Amino acid sequence: MRVLALGAHPDDIELLCAGTLAHYAGQGARVTVAIFTDGALGSGAPTPAGTAALREAEARRAADVLGAELVWLGLPDGFLYDTRETRTRTVDVLRRARPDIVFAHHPDDQAASRLAAAARLLARESALATGHPATTAVPPLFYLDTLAATHGAPDLWVDITTTMDVKEAMLTEHLSQNAARRARKGSDFVDLARQQAARRGRQADVRYAEAFSCAPAHPATTAADLTPPGITVPYRLASASTSTSASVPRGRDAPGRGRGAAAR
Fold first, then answer.
1. Which of 1, 120, 189, 236 is the most buried (most CB within 10 A)?
2. At what angle do helices 189-204 and 164-172 cross, to 10 degrees?
3. How many CB atoms lie within 10 A of CB 216?
4. pLDDT over 50 at 8, yes or no
């Protein structure tokens, strides 16, 4: 089982789907986190180059919490566009990861979402040469929530109550961003993630949840694609009144070093 999550910036994946990824990692799936931009415009070191290096180091530590592979594309922060070059590089990420499931930004987040949607189709076209061989299938694509849940009703929620500590541990590794947000707002990204997970959790009648939408374009994604044979992810459809998949047992060991790192 292979899972790929594509994020525009360092910490996007942690904020929007780390709890769900922890369910997969905890059941032995190979998880790859790919980050498009270098985060150089974020707060941190005195120079953009220094900030980019700092944020890459933070992203690698966060991926280690999950036991995930990090693919760092290092594109300029604030200037991510859907170009031929960027599409080709995204295709190569999919070919390298060869995922059974892809998580990527909601279409409201524009370029990163379009790149993922295009690349999952292009990755199987052998006429397009990249550093890795073409894939043989088009993986299902799930769109992430947006920050502050601004895109409206999701198609489904994943219960991350038992994996919230892993999500928080990953976010804690982004020291520069947490410090900058505390200086601006008096709270950090761990607090923000907890608030959003609680809000989505209330909608799904659980303590903490992450929200997703199914990609409608051919081949369309369905909620059942979250749980291929041998994988259990506790999700609830927006149209359902009860959970459509059995919950991961309480007390399940977290992947990586998540539980230890979460104790702050």
1. 120
2. 160
3. 11
4. yes
Token pair recorded at residue 83: 């170009």
Q: For position 20, what pLDDT does the model report?
A: 98
- Tell me the CA distances in angstroms from 78 to 48, 74, 111, one per residue in order: 12, 12, 11
Task: Tell me whether residue 193 is exposed, middle or buried, using C-beta atoms within 10 angstroms of its C-beta: 0 to 12, 13 to 18, 19 or more.
Answer: buried
Backbone angles phi and psi of 62, in degrees to 5: -65, -40
Q: Which of 146, 166, 149 is nearest to 256 (CA)?
A: 166
95 pLDDT higher than 90: yes
Q: Which among 134, 199, 167, 128 is positioned nearest to 20, based on CA atoms?
A: 167
User: Smallest Cα–Cα separation from 145: which of 182, 91, 107?
Assistant: 107
Are the C-beta atoms of residues 131 and 175 closer than 8 Å to each other? no
pTM: 0.89
Return d(Cα 168, Cα 162) in angstroms, integer: 12
Q: Which amino acid is at 20?
A: T
Tokens for 159?
């219960």
How many whole angstroms separate alpha carbon 123 and alpha carbon 64? 27
Average pLDDT, rounded, for the chain: 89
Q: Of 161, 170, 135, 160, give the one whose Cα is nearest residue 63.
A: 170
Q: 């190569």: which residue's tokens?
A: 92
CA dihedral 108, 112, 114, 117 (to 10 degrees): -110
Using the predicted structure, report yes or no on whether residue 263 has a pLDDT greater than 60.
no
Long-range contacts of 177-182 (CB under 8 A, 24+ apart): 177/10, 177/11, 177/42, 177/43, 177/44, 177/55, 177/58, 179/43, 180/42, 180/43, 180/44
